[in-house]
Amino acid sequence: MSYSEKDCIFCKIIKGEIPCYKVYEDKDFIAFLDINPVNMGHTLVVPRKHFETVLDIEKWRFGEIMKLTKKLSQRIINATKADGFELCINNKKAAGQLVPHLHIHIMPRFKNDGLKFNWPTKKFSQAEMQKIANKIKNSL
Ligand code: AMP
Ligand code: ZN
Predict the structure, then answer these.
(1) Does this model's pTM top 0.90?
(2) Domains of the chain: residue spans and CATH
(3) Percent helix, strand and coil across the chain, each to the nearest 5
């Protein structure tokens, strides 16, 4: 087991060493309330196996966690009567990942809930946009 797994807070929750408000579990995944919710019902969907980011998890398991996220999103909407919801996965520190165990945030949103999730945007030249589009298109 790697160092990060040994100290991983979500691995500890999965092993039952740290309590959580569990909303779902099966043999591959667990979902529990975020301890610092942005709104009531903010849930984290987590693979039981430790992966750091989306790039580390197997394709099949990522497919399954997305299907589960869809199912749980509906349940969360039903339970909270939210007007909408956001799905978010932060990958790596630079992108705001605080817990290095892959997880999907399901964040219920309410009209006028005061949250501002729209990021400020940047301007790039047409040449820069075309260049990066080509680079992404042609990268393996
Ligand atoms: P991220 O920035 O995507 O890595 O988000 C990590 C999330 O995990 C944060 O929203 C935290 O509030 C949440 N979190 C950290 N520790 C716990 C815990 N013990 N139980 C539930 N949620 C947690
Ligand atoms: Zn972990």
Answers:
(1) yes
(2) 3-138 (3.30.428.10)
(3) 35, 20, 50
